[in-house]
Amino acid sequence: MEPLELNDDLSTEIDPPFNVNAEDWRRALQKVVPAVVVLRTTSCRAFDTESASSSSATGFVVDKRRGIILTNRHVVKPGPVTAEAMFVNREEIPVYPVYRDPVHDFGFFRYDSSAIQFLSYEEIPLAPEAASVGLEIRVVGNDSGEKISILAGTLARLDRDAPQYRKDGYNDFNTFYMQAASGTKGGSSGSPVIDSQGRAVALNAGSKNFSSSAFFFPLERAVRALNYLQKGRDSCQDKWEAVTIPRGTIQATFVHKGFDETRRLGLQSETEQLVRQASPLTETGMLVVDSVVPGGPAYKHLEPGDVLVRMNGEVITQFLKMETLLDDSVGQNIKLEFERGGTSLTVQLVVEDLHSITPNYFLEVSGAVIHPLSYQQARNFRFHCGLVYVSEPGYMFYRAGVPRHAIIKRLADEDISNLEDFVNVLSKLSRGARVPLVYINYKDRHRKKSVLVTIDRHEWFASPRIYTRDDSSGIWIRKPALPPDSQLISTGIIQITQGIASMDTSSSEHVQEESNNGPNESRVGEEDASADGIVIVEVEDSTSSGDTVARDDHDKSADSGNASVAERVIEPTLVLLMVYVPSSCLVDGVRGQHLVGTGVIIFHSEDMGLVAVDRNTVAISASDIMLSFAAFPIEIPGELVFLHPVHNYAIISYDPSALGPAATSVVRAAQLFPEPALQRGQSVYLVGLSRSLQATSRKSVVTNPCGALKISSTDSPRYRATNMEVIELDTDFGSSFSGVLTDEHGRVKAIWARFSTQVKHGVNSSDSHHIVRGIPVHSISQVLNKLISGAKEPSLLINGIKRQMPLVRVLEVEFHCTLLSKARSFGLSNNWIQTLVKKDPVRRQVLRVKSCLAGSKAENLLEQGDMVLAVNKKPVTCFNDLEDACQALDIYDDMDAELEFTIFRRGREMEIRVGTDIRDGNGTTRVINWCGCYVQDPHPAVRALGFLPKEGHGVYVTRWSSGSPVHRYGLHTQQWIVEVNGKPTPDLDTFVNVTKEIEDKEFVRVRTVHLNGKPRVLTLKQDLHYWPTWELRFDPETSIWQRKTIKSLETANNTG
C-alpha cells in the first residue's frame, strides 16, 4: 500500500542532515534489513474505510520468538485480509492479522517463526523515546514496489498534525506525527524509521504528493499494544488467542493549538499561566475540541472550540497523556475541565470502549457489504455509531440506486436502527419481491431518499451470510445470516400477478464505482479494467430541437392534434427497457451494468408478449429487465427469450397477465411491415420514448436504405454487429435515441437501434461510442414467425408454458463489401462484373472475406480477401443473399448442410463447399468463478479475432474480481487457461474436474495463453474460504439462472 496522499500543500524546510559515521549506519542496516519484510496483502471484501484490493507494503519483525510483525493499520486492514510476508532472501510465509488499532495507523501480523529456515535475522527494537528533531534516520522498506529500498532523511518535526487523507476514508487523529524529507512513495507504508543504532524510532505511514515530505507515526501506543500481545501469547500454550487491548474514547477529536490561538478562543490568562507552569518549557499550546460524534459520550457536553484544561485533575496538553488516561479508564467516569469562550466548565463523562464501536462483523447479500457504522466513518460523516452502513452496494442496492456510504433507515416499511433489524426484515422477503428502502447519505444528509429495492429473482449470488472476525485464527468466520426456512433462501420464485406503478426512472441515482485501492497502495498486476470496479454505462434517451413532437400522458386530448398519425398509432406499442446486469455474470466482455433503451411490442396475446430491442440495450442473456409501457403507467419484469447471434437485436418476453385489465385493454403489438423494403428518398417517421415515457417523433428521409455496417473490433472483445445492411437517415435525434421507423400509417419498417463501437485517441487511449442506424424488420419477422409457430427445436419456459425456440443457421465468416470497380483491379473478369451488375444494379459491389471465426466450419476453407461470386450457383451481392442461402438449407433438416461457394482467389475462380453453423438465441448460459476469475466458453467476439490456442480453448477468462487470489497473483482477462498443475483444461467440464482436486491454501500452477498468442505460467494460492468455486448456469426448464457451489471450505472439509 503506497503512502497516503495529503490534500493540503504545507511544506517544511529541512536542514541538511548531520554527518554520521558511515560504519555505524552499515552495521545498523546489516542488522535491520533481514528483519524487514515485503507484505503482499489482499483485502477480500470492501469493509469500513477500505475497498477490496490487492497491494504491497512493508512490515518489520518486532518479536522474533513470538512471530510478530509491526506495520500500518491501513495495511492490516479493518476487514477480511489474506497476506504473505517475503523476507530478504525471498522466503515467503503466510501472516495473519492479530490487531489493528481502531484509530491510530498501526497494526500487527503474526507468523510462524519456525517456518523461516534459511535466514538469520533479529527483531528490530522499538525506541520511541529516541526520536528528536535533527535525528538522522533511514527508512528501510518496499518503496515504489522495490523489494528493499533505503531512504535517508532528518527528523524535522515531532508535533505535526495527523495527516488528513480522505473525507470518506481512514484518517488518524488525536495524535502527533513526525515529519522528514525522506521522499517515501508507494509500497513503503509500514517501513521502520531507524536511527544509527538500528532502533525503530517511528513507523512510516504517509507522504505528500509532489514533494519529498514523509510522515511517521510515533511508536508509544504501538509499544503498549505490543506488550499486551506478548503477554497474551505467553499465557497461551500452543496457539494464539484473541488479546484484548484496552482502548477508551469519549468520541471527540482534539487538535493541538498554539497559545496565541487558544487566547483568541477565549482562554483566560490565569488558565494559560497555570498550564504553562504545569507543563514542560517546550510546551507550545493546548488541546482544543475539533469535532464531536453525535450520540457519543461527549455529545452535547463538548463543542468545537472548547479548550481542554484538566482531565481527572491533571493538566493535559499532549495527546499521549490524554489517550493514556482514557485507555486506563474504560467504563469509568472521568472529569473534564475546559474553557468555552472564557467560561470555565466541568463535566463528568463515561469513557466508552473503543472496540465496541469498531465493527467486527458484516452482512454480505447480493454482493453488498453492510455493517454497523464505525467510529472512523461516524466521525467523517457526523452520524451515530452503529447505524446500518453500506460499505459496498453490490448488485441489488446498486440496481436501486443506493450508493456506497449510504445509511439505511427503513426497509419494507420497517424502521432499521441496527444490522439485526435489517437481517430480520430481509428474512421475511422473497425472491423477486420489490420493497421500498429509505436511506440517507453524508453528501446530502438533511434529505432522506426513497427507492425501490428488487430482491434478486435469479440466484446471482450466494445466500446472505454473516462474517465475524476471529482474532485467534486471523480469519472471518462465515455463517448463514437467515434461518433455513427463510423465503429468500428457497429457490421458489414469486409470480408477479400485478404490475408496479411506474416511477420516475430518472430519479434513481446510479453511482460509478471504481476499484480504488486508495492512493496509498501499490496495485498488483493492473493489466485491464475488468475487475469489480465496473464502468457504468448509462445511456439516456434524449430529445433535441427540430421537428419533434413530445406527448404528455396527463392530457392526451390537448396535444393529439399535434402528433403525427404514425406517432399516435405506434405509441401504445412502445416500451422503455431498464436493463441491469449482475456483477457476478458480466460475461462476453460486457462492462456496462445499467442500460436503457426503447423497444417495440411485436407480439401480444393472452399468455405471451414479445418486445424487440437492440443488443446495445440487452447485451447478454444474464440480465434483469424491467419494462415500462408508454400505453399505460405500469412497470413489470421481462425475460430474454432470443438473442440474435449476429444481428443487433434481441427479443424480450413479458407476462400479459401482470399488466392487469386496464393496461391490457390499451397495450397492443405493432404491425411489422417488412415488404416492400425502404427506398432512397422515401419519407419515414422516427418514433421513440424519452426517459419520462414521452413519445417523441420526427419525419425524416432515407438517405441510404442498404448501407454496409462497418464496426471495428474493440480493445476488449465484446459483441459487435457484423454482416448487416442498415438504414441511414438525413436527420435523427442523436446517438442516444432508439425507437422505430414507420411509414405514414404507423407500420414498422425498421427498429432504430444503437450500435456500440470504439473511438481511439492516440495509441493507448480509447472511448466507447455509439452510432444509430435502422435495422429492417425482415429478420425479426422471420424469427417471430418461428417463435409463434413453435417449430420442433429446443424449448424454453415462458410464463409457465414451454415454447419452442428457433435456431439460426449462420455462416461464421465476416464479410465486407468492395466496389466492382475495385474488384476489376484485383483481376475479376468482365463477365462476372456484368453478372453482378445485372443481379444488383444499385449496390454494384462484391462480397469479400474479411475473416473467419476461429473454430468455425469455414476456417481453413475461406481465406481473407476471397471474393464471393455465387452460392449454390446463384450470384450474391449482399449480406441478405447469404442469409437466404443459409435459411434455404433448413428445409433439409440437416445440421451438417453445406453451401457451394464460387469464389475468386488470387486471380482464379474456384468452387468450395463450406459448412454452416447452427446457433441458438440463448447467448452465454454458463459461467464459472474460480479463485475470483470468471471463465466461460470463448464468445463470438473473441473467436472473431481469428485465434484459439491449440492446447485448448474452452476456458476463457472474461473478468476478475478485486481482492481475489487472481487479482493478487495477476491472472487477468483476455487469456485462456490451458493447464492447471500440468493437467490440460480444454473445456469447462474438464476444468471443473481438475480444480475440484485442489485443496484450500494450496498453490496452483496455471498455464495460460493470451489473445496475442503469448504463453505464460504463473502460480496462485487457492482461497476456498473467501473465494469458493461456483457456477452460474441458465436452466431453460425453469428459466432461472441457478447457482451451484462446486467447491468451498465446507465441501472440502466434508469430503476430507
What is this structure, in a nutshell?
This protein has 1056 residues and is mainly beta. Helices cover 14% and strands 36% of the residues. The chain is built from 20 helices and 63 strands.
Structural class: mainly beta
Overall average residue pLDDT: 88
User: How widely separated are the two ends?
Assistant: 37 Å
- Please outline the major beta sheet: 9 strands, antiparallel
Helix content: 10-25%
Number of E-type strands: 63
Helix run count: 20
Share of residues in strands: 35-45%
Estimated radius of gyration = 34 Å
Low-confidence stretches are 1-18, 492-561
What is the global morphology? elongated
Region (Disordered): 504-528, 542-562
InterPro entries: PDZ, PDZ-like_dom, PDZ_sf, Peptidase_S1_PA, Peptidase_S1_PA_chymotrypsin, Peptidase_S1C
GO molecular function: serine-type endopeptidase activity
Family: Belongs to the peptidase S1C family.
Can you put this structure into words, describing what you see?
The structure is a single chain. With 1056 residues, the chain is mostly beta strands. The chain has 20 helices and 63 strands. The strands form 12 sheets. Strands 21, 22, 23, 24, 25, 26, 27, 28 and 29 form a 9-stranded antiparallel beta sheet that branches. Strands 55, 56, 57, 58, 59, 60, 61, 62 and 63 form a 9-stranded antiparallel beta sheet that branches.
